[in-house]
Here is the input.
Amino acid sequence: MILEPSNNPRAEYDDDGNIILPETDAPGSAGTLRKPLWTNIEEQNELQDDEIRSSVVQGSRISRNKITEQPATKIWKDARKKIADVTEEFLKEGAKQYKWSVKTMFKGMKSSAASGKYGVGHIWSFLAQPVWVLNRKKHKAKQYSRFSLFLIDTVRFGGTFAVLFVALFVSLNYQSFWKISQSYINPIQRAQSSMNSSNQIHNALAQKLLRSPSLATAGASKGDLLSFLPAVGPPENRIIIPRLNLNIPLVTPSYKALLSEDWDKLEDDIQTALKIGVVHYPGTARPGQAGNFFVTGHSSYYPWADGKYKTVFARLTELDVGDDYWVYYGGDKYRYIIRSKKEVKPTNVNVLDQPVNKRMATLMTCTPVGTTLRRLILTSEEVDPDTGAPMQVGEQHKRTEPKINVGALPI
Here is the structure.
């Protein structure tokens, strides 16, 4: 039997073991051998990769072209739209929160008002309840409300407490109050103390010098030979306030505590010095120097405490701007005129400031009398004792003394 060649070509193997398929140009035509299958697959994969890469590159070029083709105005328009949307959302949320807060607040206020109204009504109904109080003298009961009884008891307790407080306060400070009231009780004394005359100063000084063992005599001009003696100061430092009829020793405590910054010891020294006069505060200027000559004194103190000057500045509030006072310091005479009057807190230490361009003085005491709530501050300016002109820094007072006939003096 003879086999006829088949029209369908068969696959074969080459030397390397690859499968070779027959190639056909057209259906029904004689088959021609194809290239190895493995080679065709690789080429096909390569072709596919090339197509993918070309499509990606082409797509990227298209997208890049689209991006570059977008105008800048469109980007800015989109950004503004987003900002407007966010702002609108923020405002809407804020308005919603505000409405909720206001609504909650009014609801709370309404609830509080209702609770308060209920509480007030309940309390008032309790206070309005009638109470019968028996009168022991008339043996009759009188009707009161709880509220009226509460007011009566409050007034009684408050009045009793006020009377006890005033009595205790006056008894502790009776010396100061008596000193203040004396000037009102005796109008002649008040009129004399209101006279701001240098004669009072000289008279007070003369009386002091007459009792001094270190000087023979001194005094005001009286027409005799003794009146021609040079004006001399007392042997101790003093401050004289004519309007208040005061002639007070001026005491300067030791500077040791101030230099060593021992503030407790400095306070003890000041309190000790206040028993024997008014205090020239340590570290402040002296009379005649540039700075602030600071003087402090008691307006009131405990009645059982030692000292004769516990009430020395009790009437210091009576001094006004324009009044003057005199200071004898180291044998020299200085005059000061009050320029300002004020009250400050006890913690205000600015009153101790020391200016370098003027000569001034300060008088300080506690106010109101019997308390330490505030400090009364009288600021003064040093003036010429004769003319009343302000004294400049470094300026010295020139005194004109009458010529003395030495031959007329007793030997």
About this structure: Residues 13-67 form one domain. The longest helix spans residues 72-127. The CA atoms of residues 176 and 329 lie 27 Å apart. DSSP finds eight helices and 13 strands in the chain.
